[in-house]
Amino acid sequence: MTARTALATVPQGRLLASDIMGGFECATHKRLDGIRLDLLATTGHDRRAAEDYAMLQAHGIAACRDGMRWHRIEARPGRYDWSGVVPMIEAAEAAGMQVVWDLMHYGVPNGIDIWSPAFVDRFAAFAGAAARLVRDHSSQPAAYTPVNEISFWAWSGGDTGGLNPFARGRGGVLKRQLVRAALAATEAIRAVDPRAVIACAEPLIHIWPNGDDPAAIARAQAHNEGQFEAVDMLLGRQAPELGGHDGALDLVGLNYYYNNQWIDGDRTIYLGDWLHRPLADLLVEVSGRYDLPMYIAETGTEGVFRPYWLRYVADEMRYARRRGVDLEALCLYPIISHLGWDDDRHCGNGLFEGFGGDGPRHAHAGLSAEVKAQAARFAVAAT
After folding, report:
1. Domain that holds residue 322
2. Tens of pLDDT along 59-114?
3. Are 104 and 148 in contact (CB under 8 A)?
4. Those residues with Cβ within 8 angstroms of residue 366's Cβ, 6 or more apart along the chain or in another chain
5. Residue 69 falls within a domain, yes or no?
6. β-strand 98-102 against 362-363: which pairing, if any?
7. 321, 363 Cβ separation under 8 angstroms
8. Model confidence over 184-219: pLDDT tens digits?
9. What is the CATH number of the domain that holds 278?
10. DSSP letter (8 states) at residue 11
11. Per-block mean pLDDT, blocks of 10 residues, the chain (383 long)
12. Residue 345: is it exposed, middle or buried by C-beta count within 10 angstroms (0-12/13-18/19+)?
């Protein structure tokens, strides 16, 4: 175990160490052209974790989301290569950075059949091995998101053919398979480390009906209700044959972006539109559905609007808390600007620039100032 210079202190009664977190984009899925993405590599975070964690700490951020790349760690069935992970765990330990580890962020190893029972078993074995590694290299309880965005993955990979496994019309089947995998991984993690915190990260959306006829209203209501299917399955409220149960989650993560509200089959409802529902209202509704702590697992935007979006989300977070929502944190995601998934364009959406991997890192001035200002506001509120 590496020497420790600081220890992330989780306030009593909470699961996360800071009100503002940073999320390192760790997608590893394959595109339709066969190219596999590896955002930890293209941003250089896998090699520069110590530097990146230090930059977070300089902004008053003591917790983050990060990822393990299953396809690289288990390139051959049952044989794990942790050489790219151990330095990241040790860097977090040395920095006192609490990490919520993503174990499957859209990517699976080559040659595995995601529809098969063997997929579930193999992922569970990997999750247990990962938890053992973290336990042995860290002095504090770990947190995990076994499967990132089950709902989005089921839609994009199972209904629209947008990412692996490139299926159409099988979103419901894929969603259930990913829920099975998440539940099996959770069981394996807790068998190794009963202290582990298990989180999800699911999209938070609102869809308006396209018209006032009963069919349009019912269709929009079904879409809005459908966003909760994955969490309901994990908790055993739907499809109990999958094995879900009340204790399957410790923390509900919600991913919310500027374009997460729209009219069914029509335009996006942006912030400032008279139809736009305040984020705090959506959070209150989710809190009423699940009697669990929550956090905003992903939020952010591109360009000059970055600081203003953070200000809005932080204000809504405080308002939701005043209304009784047990809301632990918001996670700026991604924390490092990167190249686009599909077109390799520069996505200027991070707190830190330096998306080339080996270039110098520097903070986006406007967002940096806003992060520090919001961290100070949260600190005052805590005292």
Report:
1. 20-382
2. 999 999 999 999 999 999 999 999 999 999 999 999 999 999 999 999 999 999 99
3. yes
4. 304, 306, 307
5. yes
6. unpaired
7. no
8. 999 999 999 999 999 999 999 999 999 999 999 999
9. 3.20.20.80
10. P
11. 50 89 96 92 94 96 98 96 97 96 97 97 98 94 96 96 95 98 98 97 98 95 97 98 97 98 97 97 98 97 96 98 97 92 84 78 95 94 80
12. exposed
Q: How far apart are CA 200 and CA 310, in angstroms?
A: 22
The residues facing 330 across adjacent strands are: 20, 296
Cis geometry, peptide bond prior to residue 203 (ω within 30 degrees of 0): no
312 lies in a domain? Answer: yes
Handedness of CA 106, 115, 244, 256 (dihedral sign): positive
> Is residue 295 within 8 Å of 333, Cβ to Cβ?
no
* Displacement of CA 121 from its chain's centroid (Å): 23
Contact 22, 321 (CB under 8 A): no
Report which of 183, 180, 160 is spatially closest to residue 170, judged by C-alpha positions.
160
Per the structure, the count of domains in the chain is 1
Asked, for residue 55, whether it belongs to a domain, the answer is yes
> Which pTM does this prediction carry?
0.95
Nearest to 64 by CA among 106, 103, 8, 13: 8
Q: How far is Cα 152 from Cα 159, in angstroms, rounded to an integer?
A: 10
For the range 153-159, what are the long-range contacts, defined as Cβ-Cβ under 8 Å and sequence gap of 24 or more? Answer: 153/106, 153/178, 154/178, 154/230, 157/29, 157/106
Cα→Cα distances 311→11, 270, 284, Å: 23, 16, 19
In a domain, 5, yes or no: no
Q: What tens digit of pLDDT does each residue of 32-51 get? A: 999 999 999 999 999 999 99
d(CA 292, CA 247): 10
What does the angle CA 160 – CA 166 – CA 168 come to, to the nearest 5 degrees?
A: 45
